[in-house]
Specification:
about 240 residues; mainly alpha; 7 helices
């Protein structure tokens, strides 16, 4: 049985590697041609590839949690979870992570906000970016790929128990953080911490993605709205 399990784990790792090599390749190509929303395009290409692998194993996306709540009670529960997640992320990042990073002199690179200069002073372009890139690309796309796909596939490797889930959470957070390397070391650590929070909530609420998708969208939107009204300066 052990050799079969080892072979199974290797297949999963190869699958994950292919998915993320696809993401990195598409992102590099899109960046080369200065395509807006390159990261979101790459993420959805990764989702397409991961969907192909999932179909081979007869795994449906609905099994991984992105179900819309039904009934007033479920909606209220999901709204409370969403608000709680938003508050938790802002509290941990603002009161713990940010001060620690700053104490070590770690801040975002000076030009990190330049990538958003194209929509400054252009409200319609800004709204379009919020809808397509922030909500469809980051909130929906990243949650499907990282919490829905990656975390569950890693757990298949590490084991569906407390230790296995913790290891999977850490690995997925490192990968998520490294994909934000353009934000410097501070950005890698910060986004990695956010991934840990989202992933932990995902398991605590029994692998439901909907409230985390909405929380992700709200957090990113508030951050970007703050950037927009602060003339592109990260405070």
């Amino acid at each position: 049985m052990e050799p079969q399990k080892k072979s199974f784990n290797i297949k999963i790792l190869v699958e994950i590697t292919i998915v993320f090599l696809t993401i990195l390749s598409i992102k590099h190509l899109a960046d080369y041609f200065d395509v807006i929303g390159a990261g979101s395009i790459a993420i959805w290409c990764g989702i397409i590839v991961s969907t192909i692998f999932m179909k081979q194993k007869k795994i449906n996306w609905k099994e991984l949690g992105p179900k819309i709540p039904k009934g007033t009670k479920n909606w209220m529960i999901n709204i409370l979870i969403t608000l709680g997640t938003v508050i938790l992320v802002f509290s941990i990042m603002g009161l713990i992570v940010k001060p620690i990073l700053e104490s070590f002199g770690l801040t975002n690179p000076a030009g990190v906000a330049d990538r958003f200069a194209f929509f400054m002073g252009k409200p319609l372009v800004f709204i379009g970016y919020l809808i397509t890139v922030v909500w469809f690309g980051a909130a929906l796309g990243e949650e499907l790929l990282f919490r829905g796909y990656l975390l569950n596939r890693l757990v298949d490797c590490t084991g569906n128990n407390t230790l296995g889930i913790i290891i999977a959470l850490i690995i997925h957070a490192v990968i998520f953080g490294m994909l934000h390397i353009y934000q410097g070391l501070a950005g890698v650590i910060a986004t990695g911490c956010i991934a840990l929070i989202f992933g932990s909530v995902y398991f605590i609420i029994k692998r439901k993605l909907f409230p985390i998708i909405i929380a992700h969208g709200i957090i990113n939107s508030l951050s970007l709205i703050g950037l927009y009204f602060n003339n592109g300066v990260i405070s």
